[in-house]
Every structure is written in C-alpha cells, then in structure tokens.
Fold this sequence. Notes:
Elements (H helix, E strand, L loop, with lengths): L7 H4 L4 E7 L6 H17 L8 E6 L6 H11 L4 E6 L5 H14 L4 E4 L11 H9 L4 E6 L7 H16 L12 E4 H8 L8 H8 L3 E6 L13 H15 L2 H29 L7 H33 L7 E4 L1
Parallel strand pairs: 1-2, 1-4, 2-3, 5-7
Antiparallel strand pairs: 3-8, 4-6, 5-6
Helix pairs in contact: 10-11
The structure holds uridine-5'-diphosphate (UDP) and magnesium ion.
The site of uridine-5'-diphosphate has 17 residues, from strand 1 and helix 4.
Amino acid sequence: MAAQRTSVEQRQQPTIFFVIPCxxxxxxxxxxAPVLQKKISALKSSHLIAEDSRVLFVDDGSKDGxxxxxxxLNKTDASLFHGVKLAHNRGHQNALLAGLMTALxxxxxxxxxxxxxxxxxxxxxxxxxKQYVSGAEIVYGVRSSRNKDTWFKRNTAxxxxxxxxxxxxxxxxDHADYRLMGRAALQALSEYGEVNLFLRGIVPxxxxxxxxxxxxxxEREAGESKYPLKKMISFAVEGITSFSVKPLHFVTxxxxxxxxxxxxxxxxxxxxxxxxNVVSGWGSIMCSLWLIGxxxxxxxxxxxxxxxxxxxxxKHRPRYxxxxxx
Length: 326
Ligand code: UDP
Ligand code: MG
C-alpha cells in the first residue's frame, strides 16, 4: 500500500477506502453499515481487495447523532469502520473531498466514493476493482437509466448536460459521485486549490486512463434527500460558472447586438425627422429602455457571479476543518 501501483500485478488486491459523506444520516446508517460490512468482507475473502481496506465515513457536521453512531461502529469493528468529523457542515462536495484526501494521506491504493443511502448499487464494487486492477485510474459509475427519477429531475439534468456540452465543459453523463479513483488521480486532485469545488467537472479534467461501470440506481431507504431544489440549483450554477467564461462572452455578444439595434433606431429617427415625420414612437422608446436595462442588469449579474468567485478564492479559506478522526 501507499506506493503508486502501475502494472497489473502490482495493482492486484488493492487497499480500497470506501469514502462516504454523511449529513444527518442517523436513520440510514444502521441500514447501510451491515450491508457494507457483508459486501466488503465478501470482497476480502475473494481476495479482490486487501485486508486493510476500510470504510471511511465523513460526518459533514451532522446535528442528529450521526457521529456518535459512527463512533459506535468504530468500537464494534475498528479495522473496518473509520471516520472523520468535520467541524461544520460544508456540503457534500467538500465532505467528499475531505474523505478522499484523508484516504490519500492514510495510504489507500484507491478510493471508491458513494452516498450513505446506498442508492448506488454496491454490487458493482467488484467491477470497479477489476477495472482498476486492469489499469484504469478512474472508474466512473454511470446509471443505466433514469426511470426512477421524477420527470422534473430527469429534465433538469438533461438541460444541465446540454448546457455543459455547449460551454465545452467535460462532464460524464448520468454519473454522480459514485466512482473509483486511484492514488495517482487523488494526488492530482489534491493539487486543485479552488474553494468552490465541483468534482464532477474537475475529475474528468485530470485525464488518466478511465473506465465506466454501469448500474441501476435505487431509491433512498430512510431519511430524506439532502439535496432539495435550492441546493440543486446552486450546484448547477457552481458547475457552470466554475468551468467556463462562455456566459461572459454571451453577454458581450448580446451587448453588441443591442448597440447595433440602438444605432439602427437612431438612423431611423434621423431619417423620419428629415422627412418631416413627427416621431411618435413612445412605445418603442419604452421598449428599448426596458430591453437595454434588462440586458445591463443581466450582464452585471453574470459578471458579479465571477467577481464573487474571485473574492472567495482570494480569501484562501480552508475548504474543510477536520475535528476528530477515529
Ligand atoms: N451530504 C453531505 N453534506 C450535505 C448534504 C448531503 O455530506 O450537506 C451527503 C448525504 O449524507 C449523502 C450524500 O451526500 O450521503 C448525497 O445526499 P442525498 O442522498 O441526500 O442526495 P440525493 O441522492 O437526493 O441527490
Ligand atoms: Mg441519495
């Protein structure tokens, strides 16, 4: 473990850390833990993964006794269940990053990230590891269908991918954060210092040899989704503004267009004045006033979005603070 593995023989039986961000998952963890325990011990006894492979829970500042439960798990099986506790709730992406970086520093060969609710089918762990052994540094879990999603979630996701593709940002379709990353990829990820982190956009940017594993996504068994609409929207805005300045170009183009329209109007007014036509276009003036006002506001909004980012990045705040580790 710890040293980077390159050849197929060296990659045999890797030490895998299963990294799980948890936010108020007290109802879910008692279901998740035994299922994982069973699956992982099966993987160990079939010699697919090393004996020191483990689960790393990241408590993302939960308020409901999630950490107490993780500690209890650690007491019952200290070699399997490990945990880190963040001092505050920093959101899924940062919690996941904290887990991945802890896994890296504790010498994993590869880390598999998944959600606490086990909506992502853990029976494809085998496939993830096999792809890693045969040389893939990053393995993406991709959903085979989205038919369990609501109409709304399906269509907003579709729009999100279309927008990303248009802006030239690379995202993997129907892939959430269920993936395996080898040591080298984790090392590369650790070099990214930005505060506003969007893993699904950064990971494909890392390069390396990749593979895809498809699976069927289930439903959450207990507790409720920690991704309400508000978080989904801010997640999408994050994804879009983190990776592209195309919205800025778009606004510039719109601005130019509206100036052209303005010039055209001016010429029209001059011509009608020369022909002794009284300008009676109160309506058109009001329209263009509003149009240009709107455009200005929109551009300021988008520029503000980027300025806000610069402000946040300039502060170089830590992205997470680990309180305790077990
Ligand atoms: N999560 C987290 N911090 C947050 C919100 C969520 O660590 O602020 C975790 C949560 O515990 C779960 C994962 O992120 O393990 C995904 O959340 P959820 O299953 O609620 O999202 P959904 O599947 O509804 O998109
Ligand atoms: Mg979920």
